[in-house]
Amino acid sequence: MWEVALATLRHRRQSFVATFIAVLLGSALVVACAGLMETGIRIAVPPERLAAAPIVISGQQAYTVPKEDPNDLKDMKTVALVERQWLDPALAGELAGVAGVERVVGEANIAATVVRDGQPVVVGAQSWGHDWASAVLGPFELTDGDEPKDERDVVLDAATASAAGAKVGDRVQVSTKGVVEDFRLIGLVPAAGEDAQSLLFFASSAMGDLGEHGDQVSSYGLFLKPGTDVDALAETLEEKLDGRPYTVLTEDDRGVAEHPEAVGGRAQLIPLAAVFAGMAIFIAMFVVSSTLGLSVQQRTRELATLRAIGATPRQVRRMVIGEAFFIAIIAAALGCVPGMLIGPFLFSIMSDNGVISPVVQFHQGFLAYLIGPGVALVTTLIAARITSSRAAKVSPATALAEASVQRRWLSFWRVLFAFLFFGIGVALFIVTGAVMSGPVASATAGPAVMAWAISLALLAPGFTKLFAKLLAGPVRAAAGISGYLANANLRLRNVRMAAAVTPIMLMVGIALANFYTSSTQEAAAARWFTEPLRAEAVVSSTIGGLAPDVVDRVRSVEGVEAASRYITSAGWIDKPYDGSHVASPWPIQGVDAQNASLITGITPVRGDLGRLSGDTAALPTVQAADMGVDIGDSVTLRMGDGRQAEVEVVALFEAKEGYEMIVAPAALVAAHSTTGMVRQILVAGRDGVDPDDLAAAVTRQVASVPGAVVGDRDTIAGFAEGTRTQTWVNYMLIGVITGYTLISVTNTLVMATAARKRELGVQRLIGSTPKQVMRMLAAEASVVAIIGIVLGTIASLATLIPFSAVVLGRPVPSGSVFIFIAVAAASIVLALGATLLPARKLLDVPAAEAARAVD
Predict the structure, then answer these.
(1) Has keyword Transmembrane (predicted)?
(2) Are residues 615 and 643 in the same domain?
(3) Both 244 and 279 in a single domain?
(4) What are 736-748's pLDDT values in tens digits?
(5) Are residues 609 and 732 in the same domain?
(6) Nearest residue to 698 (alpha-carbon basis) of 562, 591, 555
(7) What is the pTM of this model?
(8) Are residues 96 and 233 in the same domain?
(9) CA–CA gap between residue 156 and residue 186 (Å, rounded)
(10) Cβ-contact 172, 113 below 8 angstroms
(11) Among 199, 378, 645, 792, which one has the highest count of C-beta atoms within 10 angstroms of its own C-beta?
């Protein structure tokens, strides 16, 4: 039957165009996702500041948390740290004693920014200050001037100096510790290269006073003795440092020491790529099944003839699978070409929106070009196997009898699987509402919408017939005799119409479920993390941080009731063991004790937020009770930089399940942050004070503070920022998936319309005008779109209702109604366009000629 399959492809090319395009795009998306996943696994960051050191020792930037048993050191979960991990100064001597190491050079990083006319001068994405002794790690050699020796000497890279309008010998203003002071530009070094960043080098003796972490080492660069093998020495160092929170970096991995934030992107990029690929495969299987099924339906007479002349069920099945195989193998291979473009495009959008650091290099190796086509091919063959079963099992007599009439669609297996996936959807509905909590509730959203969609798709012919009856009256009233003909076609062709309904339903269901899940997550994060904060005005710094005395100046402004430094981070509770935050760390919110109760909006159940100073913290009541912790007890926090902090519990408060956080003194959180500085001050006004007037007064007060800007509460940096970034990325990913579905739907509808050439020709011969035919087709397409929209909305609501109830406490998801309107309108326009445009072309063919066309 392989010869017959090839002959069919030659003579029915148009019938397989939709399948070809669906497989090609499916392969392209899987190739792109494989590239994203490879990038997330590798996290390759070419070094710039450390390029001269063959081996770099850095902190692991990760923390291993016991999953269930605190004593089980094998069952651990590794989670990225949110702040830079600092190294033990004594490690330098230990590394210098390793055979093959010639010299060990430490690098320190402090928040430092050149300021010009009160505005920061930053080249690239960041600005850091370094010890001049570490310049050799670049290597950064002077192109002009001398090395810094005095405490007020500074060496700049050429790009930053140019942007500041400064030359060697000039005075430049530099912000360190939130204070702007004059420095003498003593020398210039070349710019950092491709990784654009502002570089400031200070005298070694000045580092401890200039930065909050100026006396701490962020990484060690190792220079090797001549003839030393880099890989062999790296293995020796890994063995020596095994069990300690250090990592040995070589080649492109060395850049991770310069950009520790890149490690955190792995936790987001890998699951995003996996989910995205899963959705692409799911949609591809449905679309390919739908298009192949429609092709088989249109060839019922052909298949019946093959059965009548002696073809066995196995041969018919092999023919249908063979057709799909030849299409898929070509389309899957060609899908690598757009996959080469889609992968970098998606990665650039993700890096631009903060999902992963832009310094990470995108990698899409040969495995991606094997996985993509392979998955697309397997998906197509599975869909073809499912599609071929019905045509292969009927007897020749039955097939011939069904050649001109609508075949039955209801079968035992269809009903069984429909109820099976319906049960899965119900189970996920219950699990989401009764078991899940907080942001993790979204984990069931993807599987849930797919389960509901599969269940509805399996019963789509029945729903199509039911809705066609319900809409018969409005269709007849709106389109007259053309509506009557449309109703007749919808009743008699419900199986073929269902082939067009299914992809529309998929597009609507997946789009609505994901769009509203993302917007609901964002609203929940803002509600539970940010809304409780009282802040009519927010003072932010654009130069790395604010000096400690700025908050006192803000408090002195007339009309200000409370002002507090504000900083966020994340960490864990080490002791006593806490199993509530294993997969993700606790959000930590740092505020000042003086105004903590007024700023946070938290009313302690027990204790006093006014005691939040030094080594103290406030915990949610439920988690404290689970750990057996009460007021006055001590707990050990693992802060964002991986270091421990022994704190006393001074307050307990109620928190929304799934959105709990730890409240700690701002100074404590800042000390364990990457910069060591606080970048925001929250300001609450007295009752009756106009927010605009308050903001204006605060602006006047901080006008002399370089880099200080005043905004409203929307500028609060917090835990909702990550959710907001994730939301936009989800929009982008769902946009790509929706676009893929749109193309598939278009091809399905175009193919279905083009196959009706003979039918439309006969209709015109018996008296219908082209205008009546077009009105009939428009009515059919509108009904198909409406049915798809209704079923897709049902699938999305079954997913969104329990999710919204969990995270927002109400069954109605958050998000603009215009999202639904846009998705629905796009579906209707798509259905009409994909039906009427090919129909217009068919009507150009003389009626008599069209009526003689072969089905």
Answers:
(1) yes
(2) yes
(3) no
(4) 666 666 666 676 6
(5) no
(6) 555
(7) 0.79
(8) yes
(9) 8
(10) no
(11) 792
